[in-house]
Amino acid sequence: MSLQNLTRFPRLELIGAPTPLEYLPASVRSPWARNFY
Fold first, then answer.
1. Is 9 within 8 Å of 21 (Cβ atoms)?
2. What pLDDT, on the 0 to 100 scale, is given for residue 10?
3. Half-sphere exposure of 31 (CA within 13 A, CB side)
4. Which of 12, 25, 31, 36 could form a disulfide with 17 if both were Cys (CB 3.0 to 4.6 A apart)?
5. Mean pLDDT in runs of 10 for the chain (37 residues)?
6. Cα(18)–Cα(31) distance, integer angstroms
7. How many angstroms separate the Cα of 20 from the Cα of each of 30, 36?
8. Residues in contact with 29: Cβ distance below 8 Å, sequence separation at least 6, in sequence order
9. Of residues 23, 28, 21, the one with CA closest to residue 8
């Protein structure tokens, strides 16, 4: 996945879009993704 795709997920969450269950464990596994939270 490109960086643009990764940055879109946190932005969608702020808008209130439903978060895919597959993305939750992915964000926990990646320390880089934790920076968005």
1. no
2. 57
3. 0
4. 12
5. 56 55 58 57
6. 22
7. 16, 16
8. none
9. 23
Q: Which amino acid is at 7?
A: T
Residue 30 in tokens:
């990646």
Reference 1, options 14, 20, 16, 18; nearest CA is 20
DSSP notation for 1-37: --HHHHHHHHHHHHHTPPPPTTHHHHHHH-HHHHTT-
Tokens coding 21: 């269950």
Q: How far apart are CA 28 and CA 15, in angstroms?
A: 20
